[in-house]
Amino acid sequence: MIKEYNPLQSFRLQSGSSFVRPAQILPERVKLSDSALNVMTDLHKVSVVSVRTRTPMEQANAKMIRYGVRLLLVLDDSDQVAGLLTATDVLGEKPMRYLQNMGGTHAEIMVRDIMTPQPDLEVLKIDDVQNAKVGHIVASLKHSHRQHALVVAEGEDGNQSVCGLFSLTQIARQLGAQVQSFQLANTFAEIEAAIPHG
User: What confidence tier does 146 reach under pLDDT thresholds 50, 70, 90?
Assistant: First the structure.
């Protein structure tokens, strides 16, 4: 016997409606000895903010501000990872160096001109991260002199996909450290000194 299904009542979408974005709730406070997963942005739970290689730099910067992020994943026309663009890339020396070498105007600089290209990106493997502590991630970021680290999963075919990312600023906040002094710390003694104890 076939059941009867009644249609649901429909309504008009209200003006000014938004939409639900995925969210990951990270612990407010962590210790260096806690699991590294407690400070990783998991891209299975949070949508990464991305930009195309041919996007004007100013537009990419506006996107970072709008989404409250300091990193954009740069994609090519096939949705493959082409590179990484950080706020430091946009606000640092790269745009001026590009203009000195290539000429043109600030408005003509594209993301591809100042991003860190894919061949230069170093990544962490999720298998290693799952067994790591927050302290391992801090040490890795400090060792590479980077503010961010991408995490990849490898498929059975050997292809990688970016599945997470770490931000030194986010980790400092979760450790309860003053971000500026934490970022400047180089040794673990300096890092420990930047983290309030109590």
Answer: confident
Neighbours of 198 (CB within 10 A): 3
CATH architecture, domain defined by 36-194: Roll (3.10)
Q: DSSP code of 24?
A: -
Query: Percent helix, strand, coil in the chain (nearest 5)?
Result: 40, 20, 40
The domain ranges of the chain are 36-194
Give the whole-angstrom CA distance, residue 83 versus residue 53: 8
Angle between helices 134-144 and 168-175 (to 10 degrees): 140
Token pair recorded at residue 63: 């996107």
Q: Which of 24-28, 83-87, 134-138, 190-194 has the lowest mean pLDDT?
A: 190-194
195 contacts 175 by C-beta, under 8 angstroms: yes
**81: which strand partners?**
75
64/58 Cα distance (integer angstroms)? 10
Burial (0-12, 13-18, 19+ Cβ within 10 Å), 68: exposed
pTM: 0.82
Tokens of 141: 């970021």
| Beta carbons of 82 and 50 less than 8 angstroms apart | no
